[in-house]
Write a structure and sequence with these properties.
Elements: H1 2-25, H2 28-56, H3 58-99, H4 128-144, H5 147-168, H6 173-191
Helix pairs in contact: 1-2, 3-5, 3-6, 4-5, 4-6
Length: 198
């Protein structure tokens, strides 16, 4: 850093001045005053150097912040892409449910007396709006879609729940909750002809 070099030069000049002053009039008091002044200048230089040290680290801090911002932007882009895929899954599930509308609404009724869990725990994602949608859609698909299409539709629902669970653990949580509300509304209309109740 440039400051120590300047400090040494200033000290050398003051020492030279002290020597001349002491030789000219032999005044001890004047030499003591100059030495006190040199000590004061050195103290001020130390204070200035201490203030400048954090500034020397500033470029590295700025670089680290820029890298962090890049990382956050990349993660955000990944989450947006995953959310888009989740919305596509929701739309595909709605279309799969609507595709079964050619059969009568109660083509496949639940087995009487059987204990069927309303929805498996694997469909829970930890967002109330999404959990409710998945539960209701599961029951709709299980009870009202033709058997030939049921497994594929339930598998797609399971895949959606898996990807939503990943999104629910990050910053896309609020957007996913809104997407689930929208999906519930559109799926409710699409599956009404199948006899599904929401």
């Amino acid at each position: 850093m440039m400051l120590p070099v300047l400090r040494r030069r200033a000290t050398a000049l003051v020492a030279l001045a002290l020597g001349f002053a002491a030789c000219e009039d032999g005044s001890k008091a004047r030499a003591d005053a100059l030495e006190a002044r040199v000590a004061e200048l050195e103290r001020r230089a130390d204070v200035i150097q201490g203030a400048l040290e954090p500034l020397a680290a500033l470029p590295a801090t700025i670089d680290a912040q820029q890298q962090s911002a890049k990382s956050i932007r990349a993660e955000q882009a990944t989450l947006v892409a995953r959310l888009a895929r989740a919305e596509e899954s929701i739309a595909a599930l709605g279309q799969a449910g609507a595709a079964g509308t050619t059969a009568t609404p109660t083509t496949t009724a639940p087995i009487v007396g059987a204990t069927i869990d309303p929805a498996p725990a694997s469909l829970e994602v930890g967002i109330p709006e999404c959990d409710e949608f998945l539960r209701k859609y599961y029951v709709c698909l299980r009870d009202h879609i033709p058997e030939a299409a049921r497994k594929a539709a339930l598998d797609a629902l399971e895949q959606s729940a898996t990807s939503w669970r990943e999104i629910a653990g990050g910053p896309g949580r609020d957007a996913l909750a809104k997407a689930c509300v929208t999906a519930a509304e559109s799926t409710k209309d699409a599956t009404a002809a199948m006899g599904c109740t929401w």
